[in-house]
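Go through this chain.

——
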Amino acid sequence: MALLLKGGRVVDAAAELDAVLDVLLVEGVIAGVGEELESAGAEVIDCAEKVILPGLADIHVHLREPGQEYKETIASGTRAAAHGGFTAVACMPNTKPICDSGSQVRFIVERAATAGAVRVYPIGAVTAGQSGEQLAEIGDMVAEGAVAFSDDGHGVQSAGMTRVAMDYIRRFDAPLIVHCEDESLAGDGVVNEGVVSTRMGLPGIPAAAEETMVARDIAIAELTGCRLHLAHLSTSRSVELVREAKARGLAVTCEVTPHHLFLDEDDLVTYDSNLKMNPPLRTAADREALVEGLLDGTVDCIATDHAPHAVHEKELEFELAPNGTTGLETALSLVNTHLVATGVLDWVAVTRLMCHGPRAAANLPEMRLEAGFPGDITIVDPEARVEVTPEWFESKSRNSAFLGKSLLGRASDVLVGGEWVVRKSKVVM
């Protein structure tokens, strides 16, 4: 089957493209990108006024399966990913049971093959049971398809255990993805420590809880030579530490989330538990530093940390509610609304931050809008309006930090391997 995408703005940083062009797909593979392409018998799709991007990737999602299917499943989570314009996701291992063995990785791979709307890449746990005490079955997980390793949600508290993990993971040329939080400093905190936490009467988490772990893990990465990826950075000093590490030539990458980019602690005045995060929303100055990191290349990618929770869990008091927000379905619209439409970023930068950067950081296969690459494509309508209501989501959970917002731009059509998974803004898988 042939498919011809006509007259869209084709943008891809890796392929050095930003022009009105056609894209031809044959048998699920890109056969050509150029002007006035023709193909007898091809289905022709008018992409005028649309932006055609290589398929977006999110390397920090929680699909909750196995063990917490009431919050999300591989099927519902990948439908949410497709709805948001993503063609690939990497899922964190803090499921029930923890994904810390080859058999657990194999379950995710096989389940995604039958139920997934987009490509799914498992991330394995660093330590058995994410206990921080003993290495998990790293080699077995690599053999079954794990692309990276993380104890996301806690982080390895022992520097010695972190060194052992980095020494071992380095042998597989895999990245260690770290949740940077010194739990002895974070204590029972639930919001950023400072004026706002005092005003709200809630225990705070100091910025130092993140920054000390960022500095520690960069130092251990320098010692071991392991690839290090720093998850959901939230403070200005964390960004500066990464900037300094990159200047020294270290193999360090990092991500930021839409909620840390577009919200800060001043948004917490309503005690809305959908805004309860870990790391917490920080200061406006921290938020501005994260944006600056996007602009100067310090930040490698935007990742959602998609963390679905059931309604009854998020309706608890702020201190008791679980951390996290859904993010797969709103990320692209938020980036367009706050960064592209305002002239802060262009679409070329979006492909760097939401396609190529995440893929490189997490060992995912490269995707380009070039002949020979799989037909994983995200088509964006940059002028479409999105009203973020509970009914709009494909995710099983509705705990979005952006409920009630009106956003600009959305994925109108999404192809995975040349097959439609979203058509005219509706998930068709």
Observations:
- The first strand starts at residue 2 and ends at 12.
- The mean pLDDT is 97.
- DSSP finds 13 helices and 19 strands in the chain.
